[in-house]
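Structure tokens
________________
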Amino acid sequence: MPPKSTTLVDLRNDLRLHLVTEMQLATETAHSVALAVADYLRSNFGGGDLYIPKEDTLDARDIEMWEAFNGTNYDEVGRKFSLTGRQVRNRISLVRDVMQKKHQPDLFEG
């Protein structure tokens, strides 16, 4: 897991490292792209609260949370998985939606 960026310089460096190691971009290109992305984020989101949600797909942790969930124990499950009650509520809601779609056909689909 990459380190959490705490400053714009950290963000730029983390992006550059990712672009070089994971995307195999040339160092110079990665530096330019990372600088442009960091500057874009600063210009458009700087000074505000930016929340970037994780992708809405189920992972093993979501299934574990679902299995530990009894219908009311959001905070207890949150403590177990180092999440807030609100985050657990959101993940449980996602699991419920995915399960319903999996087991219940869409009435309006062809």
About this structure: The two ends are 42 Å apart (CA to CA). The chain has five helices and no strands. The mean pLDDT is 86.
